[in-house]
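# nightly structure sweep
# worker-07 picked up a monomer target from the shared queue
# config: single-sequence mode, recycle default, output format = structure tokens
# input follows
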Amino acid sequence: MKHFSIFVFLLIFTHTAFAQINAITETGDKVILYDNNTWAYAAPDTTETDTILVNPMVFTKNEKADFLLKSTKTDSGIWLNSKEWKFEKSKINPQAEYQILHESGNIYTLLITEEIEIPLTTLGDVVIENTRAMADEFTLIHKEFRTVNGLEVLQLEFDAKVQGMNFTYFGYYFSNENGTTQVLSYTAEKLFDKYKDKCEELLNGLTKTK
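# output follows
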């Protein structure tokens, strides 16, 4: 019950972090309007693609990953080790297709898909700015481009404090003409070093299905 309660809370937070309306004020400032009636200035337009590190390593799915969980909205999916990970259709977060739970009960993952192409740098900026606006504290730990099973993805790692609880998030973001996929793993900040390899192992299963 304890793990389930935390899972529910994190799902609600993650959904809220992505809920937004982009708008322009009378003076021309770009702002983001959130469902909780708060707002924040949008990130300025930049050519951030040139400044994001590119990891030269090639990442591939783990040899023990034996099940391909396919999106019904995009041409993407994720390979997982069915002995360690359990999944179900998302019941709480309407933006996520699936919620995935590690056997330890301490790592939670969302597979979020949309039938629209979004530039990776734009997607990364939205994730960062929305989470920063919703969290009590936010720290971006790392950001880079990776090649994962032949796909160019954006990898983000960040800490967020929400209602006094500290979490670390580790995500892969991919987009093409068939839609956008976000795979986001998270756990308590104090447990992240212990479970980082497992998070990364799961995310390295991200692949195209067509």
